[in-house]
Amino acid sequence: MTILITGGDNSLSRELQIIYEDILIPDSKELDLTNKESIKKIFLENNFDCIIHNESLMNVRECEADKNKAKKINVISTKNLVDTIQEINPGIEFIHLSTPCVFDGVSGMYTETSIPNPVNYYGITRMEAEKEVKKLREFVIIRTNYVNKEKWPYPKAFTDRFGTYLFSKQVAQGIFDIQKQKGRGIIHVVSDKKISMYDLAKMTTSEIEPMTINDYFGPPVTMDMSLDSIKWKKYKISLE
User: Which terminus of the chain has a lower count of CB atoms within 10 Å, N or C?
Assistant: First the structure.
């Protein structure tokens, strides 16, 4: 099986490389998802059985500040991929990585049947991207919330924002498991426990300082990003 992974050489791509033998991870020069001709070129030069789409602009502030850029990366790029698949190889398996930020974050523990209602432009673009993916015949939308297994990138972390977080390794395993079972539709890949961002950060960064949403100034954020699943098993978050 040959797999194309978008999003470049990130932590999830590296974990997927360990699991899969035959994968292609082009950089932005080799594959420009905002350019349909660039997409067609890589399709014609390679024969893919599956695409794992993990390219997005995730910075909430940047998405609010530059909505054109956010739409171009998160929505138009996905649409370009979908259009090319429909034109060249409609039967290809398409695994799309999405986010709990398509929900409003009020109640948490959202399932695959919960209704999206994003609170910021980042969430809106990811919701619109999901709509594009649903045009395909063989699609999987994996909603998940993962971080790199490395030092927390900020000095503080929220004690009052929550999620069913995983590290990249567990999400890569979830993708593999779902593909092996030929899962389709929307599937949540989640941890077996809901924790705060602060508790998550403490797993890799002992000196992390606590903060609350009252210390935050910026666009609205999804407060409770926890996901549940009525379609799939849960994974244990682990540093191993």
Answer: C
pLDDT in tens, 174-215: 999 999 999 999 999 999 999 999 999 999 999 999 999 999
User: 48-59 burial string, b = 16+ CB within 10 Å, else e?
Assistant: bebbbbbbbbee
Q: What angle do CA 226, 101, 59 make, to 5 degrees?
A: 120
Q: pLDDT tens across 106-117, in order?
A: 999 999 999 999
Q: What is the CATH number of domain 3-148+166-189?
A: 3.40.50.720
User: CA angle 96-122-158, nearest 5°?
Assistant: 105
Report pTM.
0.96
Residues 6+ apart with CB under 8 A from 227: 100, 109, 110, 111, 143, 144, 145, 163, 164, 188, 190
In the chain, domain spans: 3-148+166-189
